[in-house]
Write a structure and sequence with these properties.
Layout (H helix, E strand, L loop, with lengths): L1 E5 L6 E9 L2 E7 L4 E4 L5 H8 L2 H30 L6 E5 L7 E8 L5 E6 L2 E3 L3 E3 L3 E2 L5 E7 L3 H6 L2 E6 L7 E4 L6
Antiparallel strand pairs: 1-2, 2-3, 3-4, 5-6, 6-11, 7-8, 7-12, 9-11, 10-11, 12-13
């Protein structure tokens, strides 16, 4: 596998050119010395032969430090609007019956990273909480769930909320668990 890296904040660039065989690392290209390094004894002959090809070594250096980085910058600029977009989540609470868990369903958000927490009387809960997997929607956004299992008598004594934190939000979404919301 080969490729390059570019930090758009610092301008730092890097690259890699690595070969494997039978599930093991075999040969890698060292960007400091611009030479191939065998990572297994079986790769020594190939690495030596490739290191004796000055034109190929120069070609790799040019590709990894210039051409690949130029392409990477171009493709990032093409996808910038998609990569940097922010779509706010929609949040709802669901419960089948009083003995089943309450589900905080979060959907339609982008980017993928989201945090869903439960609180009881303002204190964060981690007991009786089950986080679901974040999965893609068909429209390029994401969805996730979080389930809270609480005894019916505890609903009456305490105040529970589902809180959603996401990059698209100026303020967190806080949904109180009430009879109307479930």
């Amino acid at each position: 596998m080969y490729g390059c890296e570019w930090d758009d904040e610092t301008g730092a660039t890097g690259g890699f050119d690595q070969y494997g065989y039978d599930g093991e690392d075999f040969i890698t290209y060292d960007l400091e010395t611009w030479r191939y390094i065998d990572l297994q004894p079986q790769g020594e002959i190939t690495a030596r032969r490739w290191n004796n090809d000055a034109a190929n070594l120069e070609n790799n250096k040019q590709y990894l430090t210039q051409e690949c980085v130029d392409w990477l910058k171009k493709y990032v600029s093409y996808g910038k609007s998609t990569l940097e977009r922010r779509v706010k989540p929609q949040v709802s609470l669901l419960q089948k019956d009083t003995s089943s868990p309450v589900t905080c369903h979060v959907t339609g958000f982008y980017p993928r990273a989201v945090m869903v927490t439960w609180k009881r009387d303002g204190q964060e809960l981690d007991v009786d909480v089950e986080l679901g997997e974040t999965v893609p929607n068909g429209d390029g956004t994401f969805q996730t769930t979080s389930h809270l299992r609480v005894k019916p008598e505890d609903w009456k004594r305490n105040r529970y909320t589902c809180t959603v934190l996401h990059k698209s939000l100026e303020d967190d979404i806080i949904l109180p668990v009430t009879e109307e919301n479930k």
